[in-house]
């Protein structure tokens, strides 16, 4: 570098000079010596040099935006597009909208197939009563806290349903020729391992606490398990428990079996524990007995009331017990 | 000499570039990691729209990878990246301005901000203010060339390439910019005697 060249330099000319800027930005010993000597020889240039270099250095101290926080996220976006993993998947590519459309179509198709093959399921909450009309016209009243399930394509080959909880069935009669009963004319209710086979009848089924109670109102019922078989006629009330079917005393008014469907409670000569059990099962109440023996208190005669409140009042007056109801908790004192 | 330092740095960048062109994912990753911060900082000079800058950096690197076999080996990789990013940002801002009205001379905003800079003394603060106000009065292209020259340390040839003008115009443009700055910056009322030969250090090196 020529010392004399710089002797006439102005402030501005220093800022234009490549060598000067290079020195300011990346000073080396060699350059330091040169500029040191220069300012010794031309002290009147000292201020211009000083000023020019401080302008550059101050200018360079400005705010930065390095966006470091985002370096990983932006990289991930790049990787997804062209990364080693993305490369292999790139064999065949549909346009964006087609890909989206195809994806939606696939999902919809899968959902339909899933739904199609999925058994139909009707469920009731505590205290809820549902009326289900089956494809063949059969009506099922579903009591609270119960589930009725049947498979898709129901009624074509057979009429089979699965019941948990309590339901009242009014089965449509399809059979024309009693001598030749087709499989599809038979209506079967499965409760655990008990099968209730009918042609066209009205009956109530209660499947709770590992016990199945079947009460027949009209028509004929055949109860079968792997081991036993029993035919019921109207008014019969059967109980299936511990792999055994037993017949209870005949009902004089079997139609009262469906009183629950009108939120009616009809009991005759029943123990308090059994009455309140139905409140637990179908309505979801929690029953507490301060004295456990009060479960065995029996109400003589018949109760026929509508609604939980009225039932509790009747219990209280006829058995002389205190009944406290707090939300879903009932305490018998 | 300092040129050696620059060229050594460039040599390194060029080595990475060659490996990247051969399809090395590691080299490509390195290229990204080494330049991400600088490119964001540069992009921020054109727009304060952070998402736009990120998208531009993203697009730039996608383009690099997909076209890697057709790319030449530039004399300066940094130069190449700056130029490419600048073009992408301009294009994005143009397409954006079709939807939202922007002021005529908006695209560049190479104004200087010292808001987050911790400064040592009053003289420097005074100089900061002078620089800030004088830069703000310059046309945007002059602001840009000042940035490329003094901040990024690009040569005239590189600046001409980035700004897509010829080298002579680059000289003239910087000359004009310095002319406007001269009167304000030349004379300081407080004579700053920097301990020049001991204190000058490389700053703002990423």
Characterize the structure shown.
Chain A has 333 residues and is of the alpha+beta class. Chain A has 3 domains: 3-60, no CATH class; 120-255, Jelly Rolls, CATH 2.60.120; 263-332, Phage tail protein beta-alpha-beta fold. Chain A is built from 10 helices and 18 strands. Chain B has helices spanning 2-21, 25-43, 50-66, 77-97, 122-136, 140-151, 156-163, 167-186, 196-199. Chain B has 9 helices and no strands. Classes of the chains: A alpha+beta (333), B mainly alpha (206). Chains A and B meet through α2, α3, α4, α5 and α6 of A and α1, α2, α3, α5 and α6 of B.
SSE topology string of chain B = HHHHHHHHH
Based on DSSP secondary structure assignment, what is the total number of beta strands of chain B?
0
Largest sheet of chain A: 13 strands, mixed
Q: Name the helix and strand elements of chain A from N-terminus to C-terminus, one letter apiece.
A: HHHHHHHHEEEEEEEEEEEEEEHEEHEE
CATH architecture assignment of the largest domain in chain B: Orthogonal Bundle
Which characteristics define this entry?
heterodimer; A: 333 residues; alpha+beta; Jelly Rolls; Phage tail protein beta-alpha-beta fold; 3 domains; 13-stranded mixed beta sheet; 3-stranded mixed beta sheet; 33% helix; B: 206 residues; mainly alpha; Rna Polymerase Sigma Factor, Chain: A; Arc Repressor Mutant, subunit A; 2 domains; 9 helices; 66% helix; globular; disordered C terminus
Describe the SSE topology.
The complex is a heterodimer of chains A (333) and B (206).
Chain A: H1 3-6, H2 11-16, H3 18-25, H4 29-41, H5 46-60, H6 71-82, H7 84-88, H8 96-117, E1 120-123, E2 130-133, E3 139-142, E4 147-150, E5 159-170, E6 187-191, E7 194-198, E8 202-208, E9 211-218, E10 221-224, E11 229-232, E12 237-241, E13 244-248, E14 264-271, H9 272-283, E15 286-289, E16 298-306, H10 308-319, E17 323-326, E18 329-332
Parallel strand pairs in A: 5-6, 15-18
Antiparallel strand pairs in A: 1-4, 2-3, 3-5, 4-5, 5-8, 6-7, 7-10, 8-9, 9-12, 10-11, 12-13, 14-16, 17-18
Chain B: H1 2-21, H2 25-43, H3 50-66, H4 77-97, H5 122-136, H6 140-151, H7 156-163, H8 167-186, H9 196-199
Helix pairs in contact in B: 1-2, 2-3, 2-4, 3-4, 4-7, 5-8, 6-8, 7-8
């Amino acid at each position: 570098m020529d010392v004399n060249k710089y002797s006439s330099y102005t402030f501005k000319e220093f800022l234009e000079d490549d060598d000067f800027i290079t020195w300011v930005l990346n000073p080396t010993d060699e350059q330091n010596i040169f500029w040191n000597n220069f300012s010794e020889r031309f002290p009147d240039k000292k201020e211009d040099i000083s000023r020019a270099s401080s302008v550059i250095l101050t200018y360079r101290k400005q705010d930065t935006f390095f966006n470091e926080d985002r370096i990983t996220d932006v990289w991930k976006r790049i990787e997804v597009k062209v990364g080693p993993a993305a490369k292999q998947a790139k064999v065949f590519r549909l346009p964006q909208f087609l890909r989206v459309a195809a994806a939606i179509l696939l999902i919809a198709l899968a959902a339909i197939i899933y739904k199609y093959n999925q058994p139909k399921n009707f469920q009731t909450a505590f205290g809820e009563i549902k009326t289900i009309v089956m494809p063949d016209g059969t009506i099922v009243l579903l009591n609270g806290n119960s589930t009725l399930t049947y498979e898709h394509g129901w009624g074509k080959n057979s009429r089979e349903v699965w019941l948990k909880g309590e339901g009242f069935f009014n089965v449509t009669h399809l059979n024309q020729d009693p001598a030749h009963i087709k499989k599809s004319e038979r209506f079967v209710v499965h409760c655990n391992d008990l099968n209730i086979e009918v042609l066209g009848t009205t009956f109530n089924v209660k499947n709770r606490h590992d016990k199945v109670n079947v009460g027949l109102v009209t028509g004929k019922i055949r109860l079968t398990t792997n081991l036993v078989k029993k035919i019921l006629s109207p008014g019969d009330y059967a109980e299936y428990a511990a792999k055994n079917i037993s017949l209870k005393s005949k009902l004089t008014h079997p139609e009262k079996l469906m009183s629950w469907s009108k939120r009616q409670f009809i009991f005759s000569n029943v123990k308090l524990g059994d009455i309140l059990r139905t409140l637990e099962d179908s309505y979801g109440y929690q029953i507490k007995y301060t004295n456990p023996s009060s479960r065995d208190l029996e109400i003589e005669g018949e109760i026929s009331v509508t609604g939980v409140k009225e039932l509790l009042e009747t219990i209280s007056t006829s058995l002389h017990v205190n009944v406290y109801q707090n939300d879903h908790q009932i305490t018998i004192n | 000499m300092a040129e050696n330092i620059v060229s050594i740095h460039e040599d390194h960048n060029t080595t990475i570039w060659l490996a990247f062109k051969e399809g090395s994912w590691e080299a490509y990753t390195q290229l990204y990691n080494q330049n991400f911060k600088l490119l964001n900082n540069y992009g921020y000079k054109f727009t304060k729209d952070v998402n736009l800058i990120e998208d531009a950096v993203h697009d730039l690197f996608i383009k690099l990878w997909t076209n890697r076999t057709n790319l030449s080996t530039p004399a300066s990789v940094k130069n190449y990246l700056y130029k490419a990013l600048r073009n992408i940002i301009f294009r994005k801002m143009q397409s954006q301005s079709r939807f939202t009205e922007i002021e005529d001379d908006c695209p560049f905003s190479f104004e200087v901000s010292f808001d987050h800079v911790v400064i040592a003394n009053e003289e420097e603060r005074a100089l900061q203010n002078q620089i800030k106000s004088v830069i703000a009065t310059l046309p945007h292209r002059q602001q840009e060339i000042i940035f490329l020259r003094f901040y990024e340390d690009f040569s005239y040839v590189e600046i001409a390439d980035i700004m897509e003008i010829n080298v002579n115009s680059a000289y003239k443009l910087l000359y004009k910019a310095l002319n406007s700055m001269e009167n304000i910056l030349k004379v300081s009322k407080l004579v700053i005697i920097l301990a020049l030969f001991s204190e000058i250090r490389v700053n703002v090196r990423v």
